[in-house]
Design brief:
The complex is a heterodimer of chains A (776) and B (324). Chain A is 28% helix and 25% strand. In chain A, strands 4-6-2-13-10-11-12 form a 7-stranded mixed sheet, with helices on both faces. Chain A is globular. Chain A starts with a strand and ends with a helix. In chain B, 28% of the residues lie in helices and 21% in strands. Classes of the chains: A alpha+beta (776), B alpha+beta (324). Chain A binds chain B through residues 42-43, 45, 47-48, 100, 112-113, 116, 272-276, 632-635, 637, 673, 677, 679-680, 682-686, 689-690, 692, 694-698, 751-753, 756-757, 760, and chain B through 1-4, 104, 124-125, 127-129, 131-132, 134-136, 148, 225, 227-233, 300-302, 305, 308-309, 312-313, 315-316.
């Protein structure tokens, strides 16, 4: 790792504060929690893709000895979902099933064998309906509707136009249009889904411990679906084995487990199999893209026309947000003078898609960066030069009204160009070897939250008590990304106390202030700022106390390294413990609150859907990928990656480096080998064997470069660091393959069979053109 | 959806004779060694034997002997032990390469030579959960009456995916098989049948106890195609053994796995003896492979790719084994 020193020295990297518990195996994940006395929950799932439930008899299951509860759609007449305007899903199907694997009923029994037997005793009759597995089938004029209020099976159409594209295309020296197809993928987080729910019939309280990234949203949906008062519910997040968006909405099994616990008046542990975890899905949809770009001879973009069709699966989920992001995040990275976007989110009889790392931006970015590269090649321009010809100049607003306050992309380009030896090596590599590059960006949280309540975007409480310990209470869910460590650092540094004086308690709705959750990379920016705000208030209070004791004015008191003093006077120095003791006199334990709110001018344009994509700050990344392609077998190996990320300021460079590597690696999975595959709606990929996540044997060295642009509003200048470097990998890979063997791939992932098909097609065309030449 | 291992009793014989006797006493029992194949299928409800006969406590099965007569490898020798054996790496390179390429380190530590030779055939319609197969009306190989890969056909097309078999085939391996009728020795090629539902020519209750290799094999190599560089079963795997006399072929054997319901020796390579190893020869081998492999839609990767890639591997391995 190298950090660009800029004007300030790089910060010191700190191991994650919960790292030791994880690597020693002490950390308790949901399935490891104490479930003594818990019943075992199991779910009956639809065997068909689309149908009407005409019979559901659970009496035999209910009568089986050892069965404590059986629940069906009759037990929950309430829908749930992400957006208040698009909640069209029941935790257990009512009347209709829309994908294979959709939950229909659930049992809680004394053990797994009994639960399994009970499922087998449930009598289910379904009248099958036609099923649609592609947007084209679902949009056909005679297709029946999955949801009656969505004509054409289109969940949402988006039509945006900014600037005059006709003028732009007319001014272009080169206009090119291509279609791209990106396979559906899954988060494949290592921890399978699990949930532990306990209902206490005496107090009427429900306690849920679960894998959620969004305890607050789950809390709301539990109250809605169980028709309970929110105050009787507590949601606790244990350690989490990865999220990546898989748990960024309330999930059916979490609500089902709670329904079972209430029906059984007890405790229920639901552990989903890997297959069920895949079926729960909520990941990146299959996306078809048509992209048209206009470019001047110098590489300046003149206009852009983008059409995106996403196969969203059977329910709304995050769909509306995803299709909006796919258009809005076309912007915010380059200066595009005119752009038209048409997006279609289409229902299909498959597991619902949702948010996944790089939400909405990745497939659009893939098409864009790939086409830009091809046009540069056609114009005889260097890939770096063409990107440099279209840079933004911060501070600015994009054509679709996104605010850009800090912009380290130029530096990112310089860094990876230099580090990879691009200038010296491009075009001079041996046969079968190639270099490719691409850029990407991502939001540091949505400036306008999904559930608009008027509350601040983040609130952090700090508690200081007799022991001198500072406890930070935050609803922010640490899902492995290091957010609790970030909060600890922000608090410790603002107070100038040692890091281990700060303890972070996170994501327990009975204890911690509400937080919207771990998604769209919002935590560092929003919770970080709230934590600093809280720490400043606490510091002010301690300085006032010290000033009283030192008989000085507060502005003359300095606090450094847990010591308060006036000027350099050693005699008058006060230790942290003394100041705390003095501060507690008459007051007792101290609690302060910090908050952060995004200013309205950052919350996006006035057009419909304009809030999506709006953010306080974009991270920026550039990467170079070096590949070797075997043209006999179509196999690609990634030899090395150089990646630079502008994260504003790396609060914890060690964690930033890990997140950069993780982003690149996840992008590599999508680019090389990962895809979901359904056979008549049955997931054929639903295991770690058939879902081909790269192994360590496929993983190249990833050289990381941190670029620091000091965002004016970021905590210590920081922006997000966990997603921005993902979307650049797939196009950089495809560009590198083109550089290596001259094959332009328009499909992801770049599996050996796809590359072989392209090679065979090229040979066929070459033969044909030779034959034509010979004939003429 | 269940991933519960069905209830079974475990028999733990100390000798092969006890193992054979246990199988006689429990006709529905299955032998288990490393369990990396069988237990996965049991969790998926594909098979639920009432008794498992654990072979891991039988010392005789872990024999690994090298002498003038060649090499004897007990069926219970682990894949990992085989992969790291110096003599194997030096003289039977295809076998060492095949062993090292199997699955991941955990599987290699548990999996055995006998288990890999008897690996169940695989198919995307078969290696799925009970819920999945039930929703799909099962298949010809398990509880159903239709092969979803070739619905018009009469047989199961599940593919054999063991890596050791092709390497052992080109190295001229024989196997010892023990059953109620005593011990028999047969060429490895006679173990396999082109039928995904019944691909092993073992009588009921028979057990492979050892693999025997001749002492002076020709130069050999193994390679396989898969999407990832570890874990995955071969989409196509190719072993080659090549003896040369000057620039000409003295003997050439090619064996394939992953493409058919059995691993098999490529026919027609005898006729190539005496030929120089040039592009023309490699093109002929390519054609032989493409003609004889029969990949079907048993994997998510297309059958045609597996055919073309198998041929490409064969060409490459032969070219690489060609004396400089």
């Amino acid at each position: 790792m190298s950090v660009d020193a800029g004007t300030r020295p790089p910060r010191r990297g700190v191991p994650l504060i919960d790292g030791v518990e994880k690597v020693t195996g002490r950390a308790r994940y949901t399935a490891d929690l104490d479930h003594a006395g818990a019943l075992v929950g199991r779910i009956l799932r639809s065997p068909v893709s689309h149908g009407e439930i005409v019979g559901l008899d659970v009496s035999a299951a209910r009568n089986l000895e050892g069965v404590a509860a059986v629940v069906t759609g009759d037990d929950c007449p309430y829908t749930y979902g992400v957006l208040p305007i698009a909640m069209n899903e029941y935790p257990l199907a009512r009347g209709r099933v829309r994908y294979r694997g959709e939950p229909i009923a659930a049992v809680a029994a004394v053990d797994a064998e009994t639960a399994q037997r009970a499922l087998e005793l449930i009598e289910l009759k379904i009248r099958e309906l036609p099923a649609y597995y592609t947007p084209a089938e679902a949009r056909a004029p005679d297709a029946i509707l999955l949801h009656d209020n969505k004509p054409g099976n289109v969940e949402r159409e988006v039509h945006h136009q900014f600037g005059d594209i006709d003028v732009g295309f007319a001014a272009a020296d080169l206009v090119r249009e291509e279609t791209f197809s990106c396979a559906e993928i899954n988060h494949a987080q290592i921890e399978p889904h699990a949930s532990l729910s306990e209902f206490d019939p005496l107090t009427g309280r429900l306690t849920v411990q679960t894998v959620s990234q969004v305890g607050y949203y789950l809390h709301l949906m539990l109250a809605r679906c169980l028709d309970m008062d929110t105050s009787r519910i507590r949601v606790i997040k244990p350690f989490i084995g990865g999220g990546f968006g898989a748990r960024v909405e309330a999930l059916n099994f979490e609500i089902v487990t709670a329904l079972l616990a209430r029906a059984a008046n007890g405790k229920v542990l639901m552990e989903l199999s890997r297959e069920e975890t895949f079926i729960t899905h909520r990941a990146r949809p299959h996306t078809d893209i048509r992209l048209k770009l206009g470019m001047s001879k110098t590489g300046r973009m003149t206009a852009c026309e983008l059409q995106v069709v996403q196969r969203g699966g059977a329910y709304a989920g995050y769909g509306i947000i995803t299709i909006l992001y796919a258009g809005s995040l076309l912007h915010g990275i380059y200066d595009i003078p005119a752009a038209k976007y048409d997006g279609y989110r289409v229902y299909a009889n498959l597991p619902p898609c949702g948010a996944m790392r790089g939400h909405g931006s990745v497939d659009t970015r893939h098409a864009f960066e790939t086409l830009v590269d091809r046009m540069a090649r056609e114009l005889g321009l260097d890939p770096f030069a063409v990107r440099r010809a279209n840079l933004l100049h911060a501070p600015t607003r994009t054509v679709n009204d996104l605010v850009v306050n800090s912009y380290g992309l130029p530096e990112c380009l310089d860094r990876v160009e230099r580090a990879s030896g691009w200038k010296e090596r491009i075009g001079r590599l041996p046969p079968g070897k190639g270099l490719g590059m691409a850029c990407s960006h991502y939001v540091s949280g949505a400036a306008k939250p999904i559930h608009f309540t008027g509350e601040p975007h983040a609130v952090v409480h700090l508690k200081l008590d007799f022991d001198g310990g500072v406890t930070a209470l935050t609803g922010a869910a640490d899902i492995g990304q290091g957010s609790s460590t970030m909060v600890a650092i922000a608090v410790a540094e603002t107070l100038d106390v040692s890091l281990d004086r700060v303890r972070v308690v996170s994501a327990d709705t009975a204890v911690t202030p509400k937080d919207n959750g771990a998604y769209s990379s919002r935590i560092t920016f929003m919770v970080g700022n709230a934590a600093i705000d809280a720490a400043r208030k606490l510091k002010e209070l301690l300085i006032a106390t010290a000033a009283r004791k030192l008989e000085a004015r507060p502005e003359d008191v300095e606090c450094e390294n847990e010591t308060f003093r006036v000027g350099h006077g050693e005699q008058s120095a006060l230790r942290f413990a003394d100041v705390v003791a003095a501060a507690l006199v008459n007051e007792g334990a101290i609690t302060v609150k910090g908050a952060f709110t995004c200013p309205p001018d950052a919350q996006g344009g006035k057009h419909r859907g304009g809030a999506v994509g709006s953010t306080m700050g974009f991270s920026y990344a550039a990467q170079v990928v070096e590949v070797s392609v075997d043209d006999a077998t179509g196999q690609v190996s990634v030899d090395k990656v150089w990646v630079a990320l502008d994260c504003g300021r790396a609060i914890n460079p060690l964690a930033v480096e890990g997140q950069m590597q993780g982003s690149v690696w996840m992008g590599m999975g999508q680019a090389l080998s990962e895809e979901t595959r359904y056979l008549d709606g049955l997931p054929a990929h639903a295991s770690m064997l058939e879902y081909r996540m790269p192994t360590i044997m496929d993983s190249p060295p990833i050289e990381t470069h941190i670029v620091e642009s000091y965002d004016p509003n970021g905590p210590m200048g920081a922006k997000e660091a966990s997603e921005g470097a993902l979307a650049g990998f797939p196009p950089a890979l495809v560009n590198a393959i083109a550089n290596a063997i001259g094959i332009d791939l328009n499909e992801l992932p770049a599996t050996p069979d796809r590359i072989m098909d392209a090679l065979i097609e090229r040979r066929r065309k070459a033969r044909l053109s030779r034959a034509l030449k010979a004939a003429s | 959806m269940s991933t519960l291992l069905p209830t079974f009793r475990l028999a733990a014989p100390r000798t092969v004779a006890e193992a054979i006797a246990a199988r006689r006493d429990h006709p529905a029992a299955r032998f288990v060694a490393g369990g990396t194949d069988l237990l996965v299928n049991m969790r998926r409800g594909i098979s639920s034997p009432d008794v498992l006969i654990d072979l891991s406590g039988i010392d005789a099965l872990t024999e690994f002997r090298i002498d003038d007569n060649g090499v004897t490898i007990g069926a219970g020798v682990t894949i990992a032990a085989l992969a790291r054996h110096e003599v194997i790496a030096a003289r039977y390179r295809a076998l060492a390469q095949a062993a090292a390429s199997i699955a991941g380190p955990g599987h290699r530590a548990m999996g055995t030579v006998g288990g890999n030779l008897c690996l169940d055939t695989r198919c995307i319609y078969y290696n799925q959960s009970e819920w999945w197969r039930h929703a799909n009306a099962y298949c010809l190989k398990n509880r159903g009456d239709t092969c979803h890969v070739a619905p018009q056909g009469q047989r199961c097309h599940a593919a054999f995916s063991g890596d050791l078999a092709p390497a052992l085939l080109v190295l001229g391996a024989e196997i010892d098989v023990l059953g109620e009728q005593g011990l028999r020795r047969l060429p490895l090629s006679q173990l396999y049948i082109e039928d995904g539902k019944a691909h092993l020519a073992l009588a009921d209750g028979e057990l492979i106890t050892a693999v025997r290799l001749p002492p002076a094999p020709p130069a050999s190599a193994y390679a396989k195609i898969r999407t990832r560089a570890a874990i995955d079963f071969p989409l196509a795997g190719v072993a080659v053994a090549l003896a040369t006399s000057g620039p000409a072929i003295a003997s050439l054997d090619v064996a394939l796995t992953g493409t058919n319901s059995r691993p098999f020796l490529l026919a027609g390579t005898d006729a190539l003896a005496g030929r120089a190893i040039d592009d023309k020869l490699l093109a002929e081998v390519d054609r032989l492979v493409q003609k004889q492999v029969q990949p079907m839609r048993t994997t998510l990767t297309s059958a045609n790719y597996r055919r073309v890639a198998a041929a490409a591997l064969a060409r490459r391995l032969i070219a690489d084994l060609r004396p400089a």
